[in-house]
Amino acid sequence: MAQRSAVVASKVGLHARPAAVFVKAVAASGVPVTIAKEGAEPVDAASILGVMTLGAEHGDEVVLTAEGDDAERVLDELVELLSQDLDA
37: helix, coil or strand? Predict the structure, then answer.
């Protein structure tokens, strides 16, 4: 199981458009990924409802976890995605 930490760079956090962009990237990867804020239960990163209810705001650190052959590559790409302002 691979794991990465990332800081949410989108000014509005993982809400609406940024969440949709992130979820779409997770779904396209074909790798099961979870996302969690510190102290919270992980949610399915391919679920728009799960990601939005996470309540990740600008500057929050999240932990991504994935399993599978491409888990390391996928997590690197998702960390890079979260480091951008997806609402710009």
Answer: strand
